[in-house]
Amino acid sequence: MVSTLPPDGRAGIDAALVRRLVAVQFPQWSGLSVTPVEVDGWDNRTYRLGDDKTVRLPTAAGYVPAVDKENDWLPRLAPSLPVAVPPVLAKGEPGEGYPYPWSVRGWLTGETAARGHIDDLDQFAVSVAEFLLALQRCDTAGGPEAGEHSWYRGASLAHYDAETRRCLTALEGRVDTERAAAVWEAALAAEWDGPPVWFHGDIASGNLLVQDGELTAVIDFGTSGVGDPACDLVIAWGMFDGESREAFRRAVAQPAATWARARGWALWKALLVLSECVDTDEEKAGVNRRVIEAVLADHDDFATARVRARTSLSPPSTA
After folding, report:
1. Which of 302, 278, 299 is nearest to 289 (CA)?
2. Could you list the pLDDT tens digit for every one of the 319 residues in the chain?
3. Of 106, 140, 167, which one is at a domain's C-terminal end?
4. Which end of the chain is more exposed for a tag (fewer CB within 10 A), N or C?
C-alpha cells in the first residue's frame, strides 16, 4: 500500500493508526486501549497498548533497521544485563497506509531519569557505568558492526568531521571555537584500536528508567551495535557533573584515549544542535552551551594533568 505519511514521517502516526494496525495484525489485542506515552522520542512514535505492552513505529526509513536489530538482539543481551531492557513480544508489518515494520514490546515501569527522580546521583552514575560494562562484556559474535544502522555510533568520528567543522564555522564568535577545534582534533587523533564491544549508542536520561530513585531499565537500543564504546560516555557531560561525573569516570574505567573520543562525540552533537537552535530556542541553546563548556573544561583538565604527570616523571635537573 502507498504510504500516507507526510514528509516528516511523524504527523501521520497517531493512535487511530495504531488501533487499525493492531486490529488487523494482532486481533487478540484489538480490545486493548491505545494511548500516547508521556515522554516520546524522535526516531519512533510510542504508544501504550493496554497495561503491559507498547507499540513502537519508526518515523522514517532511516530508523527501520532498528526494528529487526532490536527484535533479534534484545532477547540475547537481556540475560547478561543488570537491569531490564524492553521485552520483545511481536513484529508488525507495513499496512493501513503505514509503510514500515513496527514492534510490540512489553511495558517497563518507571520514570525517565530526570534529576528530580534520582535519590543519589553519584550512585546512579555508578549504576549506569555498571550497565555499560556489563553490555561491553556481552558476546559480540555475529553482532551488527557499527555503521549506517547505528548512525555511525561506535564507528570512527571521522564520519562527522566535515559536519563538525561546518558547525565550528557557523558558531564562530558564539562559542570558543579555537578550544573546541582542539578538542575535536584530539578526539580524531585518539583512534580506536581495541576489540569490538557492544555499545548502546544513546545513553541519555530519556533512555534510562528509574524507580524509587534507582536505575531499573535501559530502553531504545536503535543505535546499538558492536564497535567502539566511546559514544556511550557522552552522558558524563550531558547529565553528570562534579562528584557524579567523577563517580561515573571511576566506575566505567575507560582509558584516556576513549575519553578523548567521548569528548569528541559530546562536542559534535552539542555543536550540531546549538548551530540549529542558537537563535530560535534559548533554553535548548543554553543546555548545549553548558555541555560544550563542560567538555572543553574537561579537555583542559586532562591536558593539565598530563603535563603535571610528565613533569613529575622527569629526572631532576643537574644544573
Report:
1. 278
2. 233 444 444 558 999 999 999 999 999 999 999 999 887 778 899 999 999 999 999 999 999 999 999 999 999 999 999 999 999 999 999 999 999 999 999 999 999 999 999 999 999 999 999 999 999 999 999 999 999 999 999 999 999 999 999 999 999 999 999 999 999 999 999 999 999 999 999 999 999 999 999 999 999 999 999 999 999 999 999 999 999 999 999 999 999 999 999 999 999 999 999 999 999 999 999 999 999 999 999 999 988 887 777 776 666 655 4
3. 106
4. C
> Does a structural domain hold residue 279?
yes
Given a contact cutoff of 8 angstroms between Cβ atoms, the answer to whether 199 and 229 are in contact is yes
Is position 84 within any domain? yes
Give the full edge-to-edge strand order of the sheet including 53-58: 34-36, 44-49, 53-58, 102-106, 88-92
Residue 295's CATH number: 3.90.1200.10
What are 294-301's contacts with CB under 8 Å, separation 24+?
Answer: 294/237, 294/241, 295/183, 295/237, 295/263, 295/266, 295/267, 295/270, 296/176, 296/179, 296/180, 296/183, 298/236, 298/237, 298/263, 299/179, 299/182, 299/183, 299/186, 299/260, 299/263, 300/179
Cell output for 193: 584500536
CB atoms within 10 A of CB 161: 16
Residue 133 belongs to domain spanning? 111-313
